[in-house]
């Protein structure tokens, strides 16, 4: 029986309040409105941004919500005016949209989209609109996506159609972390062949940044993390050195300076910690180093001294790896199918939706890469 045009009742992991376990609830997912697409989520993964909202920023107005923004699925139905998608298409929801019409989308200088700034309320990390209800209450759609639900509804400018041959349980990872780290190295830092790099933080984003540095031809890639268990995976993806700051009495930037004769050409902070951001900057070569802030946080200010930049360093930020969202994700899916990008190495667990709290705890305790689930 066709569900097009009808409310769908399905399971979702609803987070009713900050710092509390999600509960599996039956929610109502409204039909797509004009310009929207309803997607049956086949696979999703856990990203640190989910944990940030649930356990760190804990903004009360951002709840109740359905978390999840790294997902992949199949188009179930489309709203009026949608011509790019049809039922049965494989698709990946996007937290960053690409309308292809605004001045930002038309500019090669940014991957931002003006409509993203009005579609998402950044202070609560949720879409302005929601097609979810549960127990008579409106439920936020986290980052406009909410992939911890069996179905979701998203504006077509925040969905990309992908190759029908793509395995959804793997390419779901491209919805955030892998593109964010890989693109930060390739698109934002523009790592050069033969250069030296340092990547701070070896979660999925950092490991993807290592992979990006390797793809760009860096000759030395120093992977930095306080968890020694991350060393093997980092080297598998291209790191030449592993550095645990806890093993040294000197500040980490001084250690890296000593290892490289003054600092690396490129450094990438993939933690979301303002102190690490400064360490990454100071670890880059003072005369020409490029340091990129990749990890997300909006809780603290960061302080540096002017001389850290005046002598020639460049300090940059990177959102979603600099990828134009719809085009970039579709391209990364093709790159995976052509074996130019690795994804299997980033999957440590396969879990059911009912185990979402277990997956969150695994990530909270740094015991996993993204956990793909269905």
TrEMBL record:
Cofactor requirement: Zn(2+)
One annotated GO biological process: formaldehyde catabolic process
Signal sequence region: none
Keyword set includes Transmembrane helix: no
Any Gene Ontology CC annotation: cytosol
PROSITE patterns: ADH_ZINC
Residue ranges occupied by any Enoyl reductase (ER) domain in the UniProt entry: 22-368
UniProt keyword annotation of Zinc present: yes
GO terms, molecular function: S-(hydroxymethyl)glutathione dehydrogenase [NAD(P)+] activity; zinc ion binding
InterPro entries assigned: ADH-like_C (IPR013149), ADH-like_N (IPR013154), ADH_Zn_CS (IPR002328), ER (IPR020843), GroES-like_sf (IPR011032), NAD(P)-bd_dom_sf (IPR036291)
Family membership noted in the UniProt record: Belongs to the zinc-containing alcohol dehydrogenase family.
Protein name as it appears in the record: Enoyl reductase (ER) domain-containing protein
């Amino acid at each position: 029986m066709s569900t097009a045009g009808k409310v769908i009742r399905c399971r979702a992991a609803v987070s009713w309040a900050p710092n509390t376990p999600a509960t599996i609830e039956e929610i109502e997912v409204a039909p797509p409105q004009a310009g929207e697409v309803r997607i049956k989520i086949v696979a999703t993964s856990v990203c640190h941004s989910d944990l940030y909202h649930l356990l760190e920023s804990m903004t009360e107005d951002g709840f109740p919500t359905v978390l999840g923004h790294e997902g992949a699925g199949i188009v179930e139905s489309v709203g009026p005016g949608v011509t790019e998608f049809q039922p049965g298409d494989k698709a990946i929801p996007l937290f960053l949209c690409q309308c292809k019409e605004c001045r930002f989308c038309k500019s090669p200088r940014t991957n931002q989209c003006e409509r993203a700034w009005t579609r998402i309320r950044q202070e609560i990390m949720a879409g302005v609109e929601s097609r979810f209800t549960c127990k008579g209450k409106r439920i936020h759609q986290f980052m406009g996506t909410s992939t911890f639900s069996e179905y979701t509804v998203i504006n077509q400018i925040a969905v990309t159609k992908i190759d029908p041959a793509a395995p959804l349980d793997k390419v779901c990872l491209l919805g955030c972390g892998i593109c964010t780290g890989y693109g930060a190295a390739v698109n934002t830092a523009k790592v050069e062949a033969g250069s030296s790099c340092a990547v701070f933080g070896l979660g999925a984003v950092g490991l993807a940044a290592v992979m990006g540095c390797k793809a760009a031809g860096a000759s030395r890639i120093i992977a930095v993390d306080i968890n020694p268990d991350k060393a093997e995976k980092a080297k598998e993806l291209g790191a030449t050195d592993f550095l645990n700051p806890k093993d040294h009495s000197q500040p980490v930037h001084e250690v890296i300076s000593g290892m490289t004769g003054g600092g690396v050409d490129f450094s990438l902070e993939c933690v979301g910690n303002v102190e690490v951001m400064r360490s990454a900057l100071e670890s880059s070569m003072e005369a020409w180093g490029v340091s990129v802030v990749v990890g997300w946080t909006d809780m603290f200010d960061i302080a540096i001294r002017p001389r850290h930049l005046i002598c020639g360093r460049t300090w940059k930020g990177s959102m979603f790896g600099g990828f134009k969202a719809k085009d970039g994700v579709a391209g990364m899916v093709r790159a995976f199918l052509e074996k130019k990008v690795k994804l299997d190495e980033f999957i440590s667990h396969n879990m059911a939706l009912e185990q979402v709290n277990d997956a969150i705890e695994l990530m909270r305790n740094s015991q996993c890469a993204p956990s793909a689930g269905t």
